[in-house]
Amino acid sequence: MLTNNLGLKLLSIVAAAMLWLIVVNIDDPVTYQDFSSIRVTMLNEDAVTDKDQVYRVEDNSDLINIRVWAKRSVLNKLSAEDFTATADMEKNIKFGNLVGIEVSCSNRNVRTADIAKSRENVVISIEDAASELFNVVVRQSGQPDDAYVVGTALPEQSLIEIRGPASVVARINRVQADLNVTGFNSDRSEICALTILDSNGAQVDTTYLEYAGKTEGMKVMVTMLRKKDVRLKPAYTGTPSSDYSFKNIFAKPETVKIAGTTADISKIMEIEIPEDEININGIEEDTQFVVDITKYLPDNIRLVNEADAMVTVVVELERKQGKGVKIPVSEIELKNLSRGMKIDFGNLKEIEVVVKGTSAELESLNEEEVKVALDLSDYTKAGDYTGTADVTLPENYGLMEDVEIEFTLTRAAGSSGGAGNG
């Protein structure tokens, strides 16, 4: 039965389908179509704001979906933009927090009665308005050009008035202008978005806040400074303990990064730390001094990193050593030898003077500059004595110990015993 007259049966099915399409197109039946995310426009807001109050929409209740019944030919031409949803706060407010929603269509073939809404009311909360002034701080992000650092970033106004629901305004702790300095290498001004933060650092919802005169953000003026590495040059005053000699002084770190205008920074080759900061008087070991170098920066110059302000100055000492210098007794200068007296050093042919200094100083010591004298003014009678020699040394040298000389004074033959200088 199925295969009998199969061709005619297939033809009848095709004919029936075509006939159904013709009937549908001719009759143009009524059906429906859904449209989502229609935003409700609030009307006559001054009914609330004129009372020094503000309102907030709760739970996105100003966003609705609709279902529209109309002929298929009409529905095919519709889009969400053809519908207008409004909530009149003067005429349609109910129970103090509900505002009735009305939806209309720009296509005259769609009646209001043919539109079904997913909700009938916008839910609002009304509270007193508040206004307060807040400081504006600039928050930087990003990295400028490697050769530059941000000198100043100043908002065009340091205070801004914010108005909104009292409960929201009360949460505000900080207002910051967000500045991204990535790649900056010249002075400029930037329009920066404002971020409102609470005491926990969390962002505050700004939907119902108004910034006095700043709907597009805050202008921030930025000045850029050029960076430069310069050497630290410390000086010192005083002398260490007599057993030590100054060896070296240096800063840690040896260089710091400074910033300034191109004209100002080009003049600076080093930063001097004055000797008043480093007094090594009497020290007996290597010593470190901590110095704040910011007070020694030239005008209009700053450190790239404020953490580099405190530097360590290291003073290194060298313990002095001794070097023996032989002086023949014949080269000892005799001062104030009494007339008629003569001096005898016995078997002593030479004395040793132990000169104190650093290894480098002792290596360069000119022994011919070491002079020894013996003052005999206190020795006027014949006898055996031990006297302390007067040793003259080149500058920066010292004696490891006093030089004691044993000698004998006798009367010269034929002496009359008168006194005098020898």
Structural class: mainly beta
Strand elements, count = 30
Spans with pLDDT under 50 lasting ≥5 residues?
Answer: 417-422
Percent range of helical residues: 10-25%
Largest sheet: 12 strands, mixed
State the separation between the terminal residues, measured CA to CA.
Answer: 165 Å
Roughly what is the average pLDDT, rounded to an integer? 90
Question: Judging from the principal axes of the Cα atoms, what is the shape?
Answer: rod-shaped
The fraction of residues assigned to DSSP E strands is over 45%
- Whole-angstrom Rg: 51 Å
The number of distinct helices, counting runs of at least 4 residues, comes to 6
If you had to describe this structure to a student in words, what would you say it looks like?
The chain has 422 residues and is mostly beta strands. The chain has 6 helices and 30 strands. Strands 1, 2, 3, 4, 5, 6, 7, 8, 10, 11, 13 and 14 form a 12-stranded mixed sheet that branches. The longest helix is centred in the N-terminal third of the chain and has 22 residues, at 6-27. It is rod-shaped, with a radius of gyration of 51 Å. The model is unreliable at 417-422 (pLDDT under 50).
